[in-house]
Automatic annotation (TrEMBL):
Residues 10-404 form the Peptidase S9A N-terminal domain. Gene3D superfamilies: alpha/beta hydrolase (3.40.50.1820), Prolyl oligopeptidase, N-terminal domain (2.130.10.120). Keywords: Hydrolase, Protease, Serine protease. This is Prolyl oligopeptidase family protein. Signal peptide: none annotated.
Length: 686
């Protein structure tokens, strides 16, 4: 194992800004917030933009998306009255009749007020088949670390003497009503270098957590080990997914007599993505091709099923079936498992299709679902106890429509979102740019049909390009919608590193090939200028998280190409990213800076190290969150401070709560979104 490179204050004079809650660092944050907010919030356009966005976010006619649990629909609702959110449920019948009769279960605003805590609701795990007992995860301020508490959804109260844990990055699932499988911070050597649980235990009701029996221990260099539970009509499967890195998985299931169960490994390739359990089969997608002992090859990108017992016995080929294999222009974007069918969300040239797969005597039958074309399909929820599903369709200019599917019926409309902006005279089109190595890169443009092609259109180009994340057409909202209403054009680049065309598209930008993603984005930007839509004086770029790294690379590699840069919750110091919070978990994507040959190629693009005093840079608007416990706010802080000391133009805003989204509620989201739009207007339109 490579030795970790130690960085001192002499090497990095801005190291003190990594002290998240340090007095000196917070003073720096407050001073920069004051300066940035004085400029942006006093703009005459800020208040109307913020209120327009907040009106959309709090609208009573929003679609109440729900999770299907045993024939009921559970919804988490936020509006101006329920800022932190309200958990409620309705029957399937009333929900699909578009007249849901909601039963309130838990009011997070009231809970936070009663307990004097800054609770942000994160998720719940409810035990089938009645889904009455639930494990609620609550975050203080919106970070990934949570407190887990047992809640009775029938009595609508926390269970006295029930399961409760201390705050940590953790996960837990039900084995039965008196037993949990839990991974959390149990003390020394139970959390990985990435900050996620490494140890999994069986915890029985009435016993202290410390006495829980350990059934799985991974390696400290793993991303983490995460429990799962599949409770279905045909039986339950409990297990652990161990992630050695972000793109490999080892699946274990709990087997044996009660109180003596042990984890048994499924002997499968590690380059899989585990999707769940269906009729005693593990459902998986393949990140790489799998050559079987028979000589047959399962192509990368395929969805397959393998009997669990065969996989435990080391003979997965005996029952392996290919459910579906995409062609060269398509990729599986999502999978959801119902009671008697599997739902497959397919992207074809970055637009959505919905397929269903049912078992047959000789394999799997694939049936297309009757949904609209030229947009995006989302799998909202599938019910493993009633064979119902909820799916959503939208496009850039067409609002979302929610459909229900029940027992193989064609989709029936439940609710359609009303227009949030006037799309009259607007068009959305797909174009292609050619990257440095000759690869054709698709991108979408949303603009007014009569936009003059003389380089004067204010344009924002958005990108991500990592972690298999696809960017299909979705209805414009938030800052993109406000930008379009202000007369700008909005562009989404489907660069390599994403999942738009399957595993190969993602893997083309991994580690030493990261520059491909950057070259793709540059090619799209240059194509926008060459075709006359915009010019360098009117072109801005926007991205967050891994997309924030993309923004940093654009800033340092092509500062001449852009007039404005919005860089959100970013990764920027790639020499230290693996030592900060969850950073070590992403070495499968970027590489390890402690390995000399990997350090060399990371150093070539690491934005923080590639700033130059003699280069003119466009003004950058950095924003992040103090409570982001995934991507360290030190990245944005240090980059901003270094640029300022070089005399480069910078705006910086840090929300003091909100986690990786940089917003803990809809009010904060509207505020942060409005800051971005005003900044872009000042730089690209004024």
């Amino acid at each position: 194992m490579a030795a970790t490179v130690t960085v001192t204050a002499q090497d990095d004079p801005y190291l003190w800004l990594e002290d998240v809650e340090g007095e000196r660092a917070i003073e720096w944050v407050e001073a920069h917030n004051k300066k940035s907010l004085e400029r942006l919030t006093t703009d005459s356009r800020f208040e109307s933009i913020q209120q327009g966005l907040l009106q959309d976010y709090n609208a009573s006619d929003k679609i109440a998306y729900g999770k299907l649990l045993g024939g009921a629909v559970h919804n988490f609702w936020q509006d101006e009255t329920h800022v932190r959110g309200l958990w409620r449920r309705a029957s399937w019948r009333s929900y699909t009749a578009s007249e849901p009769k909601w039963v309130e279960i838990l009011d997070i605003d009231k809970l936070a007020a009663d307990e004097g805590e800054n609770w942000v609701y994160k998720e719940r795990q409810c035990l089938p088949p009645d889904f009455g007992l639930c494990l609620i995860s609550l975050s203080r301020g919106g970070g990934d670390a949570v407190v887990m508490r047992e809640f009775d959804a029938v009595l609508k109260q926390f269970v006295a003497g029930g399961f409760v844990t201390e705050e940590a990055k953790q996960g837990s699932v039900w084995i039965d009503k008196n037993t949990l499988l839990i991974s959390t911070d149990f003390g020394i050597n139970t959390m990985t270098d990435s900050g996620y649980p490494n140890e999994v235990r069986v915890w029985k009701r009435g016993y202290p957590l410390a006495s829980a029996r350990t059934v799985h221990t991974g390696d400290l260099t793993d991303v983490g080990s995460f429990p799962f539970a599949s409770h279905r009509p045909e039986g339950s499967v409990i297990g652990v997914v161990r992630a050695p890195d972000f793109f490999t998985e080892i699946v274990y299931v709990l087997k044996g007599d009660k109180d003596e169960e042990e984890m048994r490994e499924l002997y499968l390739p590690r380059t899989i993505s585990f999707k769940g359990i269906f009729h005693h089969n593990a459902i998986l997608t393949m990140r790489e091709s799998w050559r079987l002992k028979s000589g047959k090859t399962i192509p990368a990108g395929s969805l397959i099923s393998v009997n669990i017992e065969d996989a435990i016995d080391g003979i997965p080929e005996n029952s392996l079936r290919v459910v579906f294999t995409p062609d060269t222009t398509s990729a599986i974007d999502d999978v959801a498992i119902g009671q008697n069918r599997i739902f497959i969300n397919l992207l074809d040239t970055v637009t959505g299709q919905m397929l269903t797969a049912t078992e047959s005597a000789d394999g799997w039958d694939i049936t297309p679902t009757d949904t609209p074309e030229n947009g995006s399909i989302s799998l909202i929820s599938a019910d493993e106890w009633s064979d119902a599903a909820l799916i959503n369709f939208e496009s850039f200019l067409q609002p979302s429509t929610l459909y229900a599917i029940y027992r193989g019926s064609e989709p029936a409309t439940i609710q359609a979102l009303p227009d949030r902006f006037d799309a009259t005279g607007m068009i959305a089109e797909q174009e292609f740019a050619v990257s440095k190595d000759g690869t054709r890169i698709p991108y979408f443009i949303i603009r007014t049909e009569g936009a003059p092609m003389d380089g004067t259109t204010p344009t924002i180009l958005y990108g991500y390009g990592g972690f298999e994340v696809s960017l299909p057409p979705i209805y414009l909202n938030g800052p993109s919608k406000a930008w379009l209403e202000a007369g700008g054009a909005y562009v989404i680049a489907n660069i390599r590193g994403g999942g738009e065309f399957g595993p190969a598209w993602h893997q083309a930008a991994l580690k030493e090939n990261r520059q491909h993603a950057f070259d793709d984005f540059i090619a799209v930007a240059e194509h926008l200028v060459e075709t006359g839509l915009t010019s360098k004086q009117h072109l801005g770029i926007r991205g967050g998280s891994n997309g924030g790294l993309l923004m940093g690379a654009m800033l340092t590699q092509r500062p001449d190409l852009f007039k404005a840069v919005i860089c959100a919750v970013p990764l920027l110091d790639m020499m230290r990213y693996h030592t900060l919070l969850a950073g070590a978990s992403w070495m499968g994507e970027y590489g390890n800076p402690d390995v000399p040959e990997e350090r060399d190629y990371i150093l070539k693009y690491s934005p923080y190290q590639n700033l130059k005093t003699d280069t003119e840079y466009p003004e950058v608007f950095f924003y992040t969150s103090t409570k982001d416990d995934r991507v360290h706010p030190g990245h944005a802080r240090k980059m901003a401070a270094k640029m300022e000391d070089m005399g480069k133009p910078v705006l910086y805003y840090e929300n003091t709560e909100g986690g990786h989204s940089a917003a803990a509620n809809l009010q904060q989201r509207a505020f942060t979104d409005a800051l971005q739009v005003v900044y872009a207007l000042q730089k690209l339109k004024d």
